[in-house]
């Protein structure tokens, strides 16, 4: 394979939210310049890939393909709203007030969701499940209908009243959770990132230090690729046409996630409605921010913050990112065909240390 870089676009099943990040893998990583292993597959209605730029030397490392799938399947079995028997689906069906024993992993993700909900002033809110369904996204999208007209205002208001993270209670010491009223929890904006973190933890535990992990466009890198260079990923131009590179960023032991309005949306009466819901209005976000990418040590946090800042929009989102010192890259539409970009100060400082050849 040549050294040319290629754009590997994350393909998910038709009609599903496509990952926003394009993976630039310098083909050198699969050249003879260094050891290279690639594992890929489908899960959670999207794709995953694990690239390791090291020799696999012991039995556990040689079992990597199997253990990767086991880890991803465990997250799916716990946090899917597409599986009726997942932990999350069972919690969503338990009568309000009743405690449920849950896994430490689900406690970790629900607790992080509570934290980012507070820090994002409510913009990240995993109780949006029913509104996501009302607007025609999520599990029901495949089964029941593809929305072609606006939901009734009464239905929006009805569900808006049920929204709110105060509807979830956790007992972290005992790994217990309960809904205190009929909220429906949806982890689509954080659990893929969490799956990436779980894979990264596993690779680290196996003694591997040079890898790039991706699930549905959420990525996390460690060390170097097979050419001894930092892993570099691309951010897609926020347009319907796929595979157009807009920017590239080196991941130096960082994760990255992107949220935007140009892949998974509805068009009703000629207007576009994104799959990201603003919990303050119960309507899909409506602003000029086309996509927002967040770099973070944790892919779960990057995933959740990308959605939170997408809700807050180009002004409020950028101001909060600056206040919290988040590494953020925004692509903002200033008219139909041109874009402005905004980098937080932390992102600019990080990017100044780009490693060149
Ligand atoms: P992101 O941009 O990362 O998040 C948008 C999603 O987050 C929305 O779709 C909505 O669900 C939710 N959301 C919207 N607004 C907010 C808000 N304000 N705060 C918090 N969350 C919000 N899809 C399938 O078709 N089949 C499957 O079997 C399947 N299984 C899955 C299992 C798991 C564990 C997960 C996490 C997802 C699964 N999915 C499945 C969904 C799919 O993988 C994507 O997660 C989904 O399409 C959105 O991906 P995204 O990266 O575009 O969304």
The coarse overall form would be globular
- Unreliable segments (pLDDT under 50, ≥5 consecutive)? 1-32
Q: What proportion strand?
A: 25-35%
Strand order, biggest sheet? 3-4-8-9-12-17-18-19
List the ligand species: flavin-adenine dinucleotide
Fraction in helix: 25-40%
End-to-end C-alpha gap: 20 Å
Order of helices and strands: EEEEHHHEHHHHEEHEEEEEEEEEEHEEH
Class by helix and strand content? alpha+beta
Q: How much is the radius of gyration in Å?
A: 20 Å
Count every helix, treating DSSP H or I runs of 4 or more residues as helices.
10
How many strand elements? 19
Describe the protein's architecture and organization.
- With 357 residues, the chain is an alpha+beta fold.
- The chain contains 10 helices and 19 strands.
- The strands form 5 sheets. An 8-stranded antiparallel β-sheet has the order 3-4-8-9-12-17-18-19.
- Strand 15 and strand 16 form a beta hairpin.
- Helix 2 runs antiparallel to helix 8 and helix 4 (104-119) packs parallel to helix 9 (299-324).
- 45% of the residues are buried.
- The structure holds flavin-adenine dinucleotide.
- Flavin-adenine dinucleotide is lined by residues 13, 16-17, 19, 44-46, 75-76, 79-80, 82, 124-126, 128, 132, 137-138, 186-189, 191-192, 216-217, 259, 264, 275-277, 279, 303, 307, 311.
- Flavin-adenine dinucleotide (FAD) binds next to helix 2, helix 8 and helix 9.
């Amino acid at each position: 394979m040549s050294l040319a870089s290629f754009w590997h676009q994350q393909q998910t099943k038709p009609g599903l939210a496509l990952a926003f990040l394009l993976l630039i893998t310098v083909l050198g990583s699969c050249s003879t310049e260094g050891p290279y292993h690639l594992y890929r597959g489908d899960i959670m209605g999207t794709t995953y890939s694990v690239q390791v730029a090291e020799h696999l030397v012991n039995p556990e490392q040689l079992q990597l393909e199997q253990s990767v799938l086991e880890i991803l399947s465990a997250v799916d079995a716990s946090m899917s709203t597409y599986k009726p028997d997942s932990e999350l689906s069972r919690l969503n069906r338990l009568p309000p007030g009743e405690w449920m024993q849950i896994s430490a992993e689900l406690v970790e993700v629900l607790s992080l969701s509570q934290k980012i909900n507070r820090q994002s002033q409510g913009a990240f809110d995993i109780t949006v499940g029913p509104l996501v369904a009302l607007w025609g996204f999520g599990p029901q999208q495949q089964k029941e209908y593809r929305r072609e007209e606006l939901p009734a205002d009464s239905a929006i208001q009805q569900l808006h009243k049920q929204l709110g993270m105060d509807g979830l209670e956790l007992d972290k010491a005992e790994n217990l959770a309960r809904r205190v009223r009929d909220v429906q929890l949806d982890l689509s904006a954080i659990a893929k990132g969490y799956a990436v973190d779980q894979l990264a933890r596993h690779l680290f535990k196996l003694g591997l230090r040079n890898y790039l992990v991706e699930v549905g466009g959420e990525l996390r890198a460690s060390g170097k690729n097979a050419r001894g260079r930092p892993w570099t990923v691309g951010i897609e131009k926020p347009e319907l046409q796929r595979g157009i590179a807009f920017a590239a960023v080196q991941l130096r032991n960082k994760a990255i996630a992107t949220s935007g309005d140009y892949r998974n949306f509805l068009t009703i009466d000629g207007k576009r409605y994104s799959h990201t819901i603003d919990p303050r209005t119960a309507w899909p976000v409506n602003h000029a921010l086309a996509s927002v990418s967040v770099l973070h040590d944790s892919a779960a946090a990057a995933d959740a913050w990308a959605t939170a800042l997408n809700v807050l929009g180009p002004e409020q989102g950028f101001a909060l990112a600056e206040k919290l010192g988040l590494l953020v890259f925004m692509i903002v539409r200033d008219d139909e065909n041109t874009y402005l970009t905004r980098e937080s100060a932390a992102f600019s400082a990080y990017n100044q240390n780009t490693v060149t050849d």
